[in-house]
Every structure is written in structure tokens, then in C-alpha cells.
């Protein structure tokens, strides 16, 4: 084992070396607890405002036990929690802030490696982005999905069934008392969303990238096996420090290939596209949207999970979990890719089995033969957009309709339920100025509610187009992440009410049927919206965030380079 990084703090016979030892012993530790031992930072995203991580206090202690058992010295360090339901306008606004906090927390402290405790949507990519840039040995410990919601013997999936119930309640189909009762039954344990939303998608991707213990991402949060995994993660953290196994040693083109294959086979969240592009760019890997389209066309959707399918994560775990799914598509994977276990992905899944063919479908009976996600281009999205075809209405995938335009969320909220809104089931709703800079932070506003006047007619889906995102738990024919965004003058900014828009998902096109000379005139008349913030993080973010097709990361974060080590006096 090479000299420990923490030794620069704890073993120096200097004035500050004395102070470092004195202050760590102030916590009740003996000299031999920390000297000569790998110091493992446990980055915990626990918070009372992140109930998905409500078990992290206990899990941090489990991780510590594993670190102690392996001969390391654990230190728990809290970082930003980013509870998806509560952080406004969007947890995405703070993903890069968590990444910076992760990088700088590891950089400035006497630690040799890290356990990254995350799960709720943006915590996973935020922690991983920071760990890639700092490039100390790191292992991800996923929060695990919550237990299946249950109401009157009906299984409830977070987000997905909430949205369906809300539309029924709003249309007067679901009684108020029943709707309130459902609210109490939908989230009945710690853990992240148990649908194949962004949280379950990103923790599975962390495993496919090779950054977790094999099988770690599928275990439900309250299951005692989740505690076993946490202890084992602590032990492995010490071992990877001794082996000097770092993120940049693990993450390769093959790793990202495996992650995209996993995303498609799961029928996972559209948000994963942005996060994976950002992670690859941190590695100095040019991962374009075309790679997602190319892989999507080859990979069947085998996970019959909501919102695209029927089941939930507890069912997925019992059916064999991610390991079982990967075993079914091993011919599509780069099996030689290294993982944090020290083995290859192929070795990690060698003994995996599927125990329920209804939940993890056989190759000959897929939920969708291919193309669970589609990359859409055209004169409305020259740099690309994303559509989750697996959870869209098939009849709307090739559609032509007139635009109903909303200039931001406030405009949408003010007019969506106006009985005089000029909209019908064939309309294409457009929401703009909600992208990385426009909002800022690219909130999940793209999952626009269907107008009440249409809900009353029984309509539950229509074509929607936006430069925003949507929750991975949501469903519908929604074109998202349109790039470039309207706030910087992208074509979305030029649409007017009544313009014809044509979506052809088979051809992967989204076009505005307006003559080029008319668009040129509109472009000359267009004025950029006033920035929403003139100070603080939101100002810094707005000034430096890149577009969705580039991962919506900040341009100042030294893509492809390691963070420098601090000077120690």
C-alpha cells in the first residue's frame, strides 16, 4: 500500500501536524485509531427534508462498522441532501452544487477514500460527479427503494400512481376522501421511489458503471439485507483504498456502454441521459446523444416496471434484481469492464438468475422490442431532445397538431385550467424558458398536466414539448430536454400559438411547419428573457451551465481533469 493521503495531516511532525492529531483525539479517539489507517469519509445525504434517506443515520453506523472491521478509520461527513419532493424550483439546480461540495469536501479533508451515500434523484449523479473529479477511491452505497405502497389492496407506485390519481381527482372521478386516504398510503417506509423513476434508474446505473457492490442497487431500504450491504460497502471502501482503485480506474467507454444498455433494458428515466453525459464529460469521454439512440435500437425493454409496465421495485428485487436483468442481456454488455468489487462485470453477474419471468421478461417476450428511449431531432430540436416511447401513448407517437404555447411555469399555472383556453386533444402543448438557464435549473415542469377541460372529457395524454425535464416516475407523450433551449434563442422560442408542429417518433423528428423566412423574421424580433437572479448560486449557475445535450454541467469544472491537492501547512 502506498503512503496514505491522510498521513500528510496526521503523521507530520510539524506544528499543524500536532494540531491535527490533537483535534481528532478531541473526538474521543485514541492515537492508534487513526494513525497508519485508511481514513474513510462517509458522505451522507441524510436530512429530515429527505425522507427517502430517513434510514441513513442507521446506515452510516453500519458502514462505519464495516470500515472498523476492515482496519480503517471512518468519519461521517454530511453533504447536501437534495430531497427531490421539497427542493424548489428543482433539485437539478443544485446537482452541480452537490458535486462541487463532494469534490471540495474530499479535497480539503484528511481522507483517503469515500463511501457515497445517495439514492434520491440528484444525489446519485451529484456525488458521483464530485467523486470523479476528486478521484480518490470511492464506492457508492445506494439508499434502496421504499416498500410498495398499498391502498385497499391496490399496489401504489410513487409518482406514477400519484399522477393518475390526481388527474382522476381533478376530473371528479376519484372522491376527495379516497384521494386523501391514498396520500397516506403511497410512501410507507424510508427509501427512494419504488417505481423505475430517476432514483431507481440512477442507482441501477451506478451499479452498471461498476461503482457499487454487485446487487446493491435493488435491495429495498427496510430489508435487513440492505444493512448487510452497507457493512460490506464499508469493508470494501478500506480495501479499494489499499488497492488504490479510483473512479478513473473503473469508468471507461465500456462502463458507459453498459450503463446505457442498462438504462434501456430497464425502461428507465429520461433524466439519466443528462446525468450520464455529464459523468462521461467529467471523465473526458465524449458521450453524445447519438450513442443513446444507437444502443436503444438494439436493446429490448425487459423490466416490466412502472411507469412503462406493471410492477414495482420490491417485485424486481424478488425476481432477481439488476443482476438477474443483466444476466438476460449479457450478450449486449461489455463484460470485461472493471467494477469496484475488483472483478469484471461479467464475473459479478456470473451466478445471477431470474426468478420471475413476469417481472423480468424473457428476451423473446419483451415489454418493448427496442427503442425504450428515443433521441428526437428536427428544426425544433437541432441539438436533440428525448422522448420515453416506452411510456408514451402509441397513437400519439406520430402526430400533427397546433401549438398552445406557455412562456414559463407561471404562465402555464395561470392558464392551464382556464375554460377559455384554446386547446383540444389534438393540440401540442409547448412550455418554454424552463431549460438549464431559462428556469434556471431545468425543473421537472415538462410533465405538464392535461388541461382540466380535457380531463373532464376523459383525455389523459396529449403531445407535450418542452426544454424542461420530467420526473422519471411520470408517463405520457412528452418530448423533453429540447436543445438549444428557448432562453438562449433556440427554435422553441420562435413558436407561436396556432403553429403546426409534427412529431414522428418513428423517424425521430420534431418539426415546426413554418416557412424559413418567417422564422428568420421572428428570430430578429426575439428578445432574450431577463435573468431571474442577479446574485448567489442561481446567478453563478445561470452564467456557467451548459445545455442539456452536454449534460447541463458547469463549464468551470475542469472537465476531464482531476481536482488539485491542497497545500498543507
Using brief descriptors, characterize the structure shown:
single chain, 569 residues, alpha/beta, Rossmann fold, Glucose Oxidase, domain 1, eight-stranded mixed β-sheet, four-stranded parallel β-sheet, 14 strands, 35% helix, globular
Summarize the structure in words.
The chain is α/β, with parallel strands linked by helices. Among the domains are: 37-149 and 190-287, 3-Layer(aba) Sandwich (Rossmann fold), CATH 3.40.50; 374-532, Glucose Oxidase, domain 1. Helix content is 35%, strand content 11%. The strands form 3 sheets. Strands 7-8-12-11-10-9-13-14 form an 8-stranded mixed β-sheet. A 4-stranded parallel β-sheet has the order 2-1-3-4, sandwiched between helices. Strands 5-6 form a two-stranded antiparallel ribbon. A hairpin with an 8-residue loop joins strand 7 (374-376) and strand 8 (385-387). Helix 4 (56-69) packs across helix 10 and helix 12 (253-266) runs antiparallel to helix 13. The longest helix has 20 residues, at 224-243. It is globular, with a radius of gyration of 24 Å.
Amino acid at each position: 500500500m502506498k503512503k496514505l493521503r491522510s498521513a500528510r495531516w496526521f503523521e507530520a511532525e510539524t506544528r499543524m501536524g500536532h494540531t491535527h492529531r490533537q483535534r481528532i483525539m478531541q473526538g474521543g479517539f485514541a492515537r492508534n485509531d487513526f494513525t497508519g489507517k485508511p481514513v474513510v469519509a462517509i458522505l451522507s445525504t441524510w436530512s429530515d427534508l429527505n425522507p427517502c434517506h430517513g434510514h441513513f443515520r442507521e446506515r452510516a453506523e453500519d458502514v462505519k462498522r464495516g470500515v472498523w472491521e476492515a482496519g480503517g478509520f471512518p468519519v461521517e461527513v454530511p453533504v447536501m441532501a437534495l430531497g427531490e419532493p421539497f427542493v424548489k424550483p428543482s433539485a437539478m439546480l443544485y446537482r452541480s452544487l452537490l458535486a462541487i461540495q463532494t469534490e471540495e469536501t474530499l479535497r480539503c479533508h484528511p481522507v483517503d477514500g469515500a463511501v457515497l451515500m445517495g439514492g434520491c434523484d440528484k444525489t446519485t449523479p451529484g456525488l458521483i460527479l464530485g467523486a470523479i473529479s476528486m478521484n480518490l477511491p470511492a464506492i457508492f452505497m445506494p439508499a434502496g427503494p421504499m416498500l410498495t405502497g398499498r391502498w385497499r389492496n391496490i399496489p401504489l407506485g410513487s409518482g406514477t400512481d400519484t399522477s393518475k390519481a390526481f388527474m382522476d381527482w381533478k376530473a371528479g372521478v376519484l372522491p376527495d376522501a379516497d384521494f386523501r386516504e391514498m396520500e397516506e398510503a403511497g410512501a410507507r417506509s424510508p427509501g427512494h421511489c419504488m417505481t423505475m423513476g430517476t432514483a431507481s434508474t440512477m442507482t441501477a446505473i451506478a451499479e452498471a458503471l461498476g461503482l457499487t457492490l454487485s446487487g446493491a442497487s435493488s435491495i429495498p431500504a427496510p430489508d435487513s439485507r440492505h444493512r448487510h450491504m452497507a457493512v460490506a460497502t464499508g469493508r470494501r471502501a478500506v480495501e479499494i483504498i489499499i488497492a488504490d482503485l479510483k473512479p478513473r480506474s473503473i469508468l471507461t467507454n465500456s462502463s458507459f456502454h453498459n450503463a446505457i444498455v442498462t438504462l434501456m433494458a430497464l425502461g428507465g428515466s429520461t433524466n439519466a441521459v443528462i446525468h450520464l453525459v455529464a459523468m462521461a464529460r467529467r471523465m473526458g469521454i465524449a458521450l453524445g446523444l447519438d450513442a443513446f439512440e444507437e444502443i436503444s435500437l438494439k436493446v429490448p425493454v425487459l423490466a416490466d416496471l412502472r411507469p412503462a409496465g406493471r410492477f414495482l421495485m420490491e417485485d424486481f428485487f424478488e425476481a432477481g434484481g439488476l443482476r438477474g436483468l443483466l444476466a438476460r442481456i449479457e450478450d449486449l454488455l461489455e463484460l470485461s469492464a472493471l467494477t469496484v468489487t475488483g472483478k469484471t462485470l461479467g464475473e459479478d453477474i456470473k451466478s445471477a438468475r431470474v426468478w420471475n419471468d413476469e417481472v423480468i421478461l424473457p428476451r423473446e417476450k419483451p415489454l418493448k422490442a427496442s427503442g425504450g428511449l428515443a433521441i428526437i431531432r428536427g428544426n425544433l430540436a437541432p441539438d436533440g431532445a428525448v422522448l420515453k416511447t416506452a411510456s408514451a401513448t402509441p397513437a400519439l407517437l406520430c402526430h400533427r397538431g397546433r401549438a398552445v404555447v406557455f412562456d414559463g411555469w407561471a404562465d402555464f399555472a395561470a392558464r392551464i385550467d382556464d375554460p377559455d383556453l384554446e386547446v383540444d386533444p389534438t393540440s401540442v402543448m409547448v412550455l418554454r424558458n424552463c431549460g438549464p438557464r431559462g428556469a434556471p435549473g431545468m425543473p421537472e415542469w415538462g410533465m405538464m398536466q392535461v388541461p382540466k377541460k380535457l380531463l373532464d372529457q376523459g383525455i389523459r395524454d396529449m403531445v407535450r414539448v418542452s426544454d424542461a425535464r420530467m420526473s422519471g416516475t411520470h408517463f405520457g407523450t412528452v418530448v423533453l430536454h429540447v436543445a438549444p433551449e428557448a432562453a438562449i434563442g433556440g427554435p422553441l422560442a420562435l413558436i407561436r400559438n396556432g403553429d403546426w408542429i409534427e412529431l414522428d417518433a418513428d423517424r425521430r423528428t420534431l418539426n415546426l411547419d413554418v416557412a424559413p423566412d418567417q422564422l428568420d423574421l421572428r428570430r430578429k424580433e426575439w428578445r432574450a428573457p431577463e435573468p431571474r437572479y442577479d446574485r448567489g448560486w442561481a446567478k453563478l449557475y445561470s452564467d456557467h451551465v451548459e445545455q442539456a445535450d452536454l449534460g447541463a454541467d458547469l463549464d468551470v469544472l475542469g472537465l476531464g481533469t482531476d481536482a488539485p491537492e491542497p497545500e498543507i501547512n
